[in-house]
Design brief:
Elements: H1 2-13, H2 19-35, H3 41-123
Helix pairs in contact: 1-2
Length: 124
């Protein structure tokens, strides 16, 4: 109300308004100020604190989801690594079998060739 009276006094004395006009202008200004939503520093700080809290919560949620995804990825990599190791061991065993068969075949061919050559020497 003190602001209202001061505004009327200024409008009447300095602006040379009629008292009723000055009173109407002061009431209109007061009504506008009452309905206006001014953002003060404390209100702004409170809203910033709320925003920071929401960001922290979102970041923690994101971090949790990311951690779970990384953990799942690690377990998938370990499973694939195990499968790869199994396949490599299977291939090594297969390779050893083939080398053994080639060596047996080589020995058999050498023995056969030696027997044939020996037979030709005794015949001739």
């Amino acid at each position: 109300m003190a602001l209202h009276a001061a505004a009327v006094e200024i409008l009447v004395e300095k602006g040379r308004f009629e008292p009723t006009v000055a009173l109407c202008i002061a009431e209109a200004i007061e009504a506008s100020v009452m309905h206006a939503q001014f953002v003060t520093v404390p209100i702004l700080e409170a809203r910033l604190q709320e925003l920071r809290a929401e960001i922290r919560i979102s970041a923690m949620s994101l971090e949790s989801k990311l951690s779970a995804s990384v953990q799942e990825l690690r377990s998938n990599i370990l499973a694939l690594e195990g499968k790869l190791e199994t396949r490599m061991e299977r291939n090594k065993a297969e390779l050893i079998r083939w080398v053994f068969l080639v060596m047996l075949g080589n020995v058999a061919l050498s023995a056969g060739a030696t027997a044939v050559l020996s037979a030709f020497k005794h015949v001739g």
